[in-house]
Design a protein that fits this description.
With 88 residues, this protein is of the alpha+beta class. It has one domain. It contains two helices and three strands, in the order αβββα. A hairpin with a 2-residue loop joins β2 (43-54) and β3. The longest helix has 16 residues, at 3-18. The radius of gyration is 15 Å and the shape is globular.
Length: 88
Amino acid sequence: MDIISILQKEVDNIAKEKYKNDSCKPTFIVSVYQEYNDITGKINNHKILLTVVHNGISHSRVIFPVLSNNFGYESLEKEIEWLYNSTM
């Protein structure tokens, strides 16, 4: 199982529990954003994104790497919560 699949599984578990009583359940998607070099066509950077689809709105947030974090990363639950709240 690759890292994206592992993250998606954990995101699904957290969201299922956290929003089990929500009448309009959000959907969360873990994906990879790849930046390509225009000359070589090779990938020169990539990021892991978390996207929410809720109430007709879609928002994405980079969850890795986040170079501005000085003391580690937020928990997946906090990232999910932030994105969910951004659709309210």
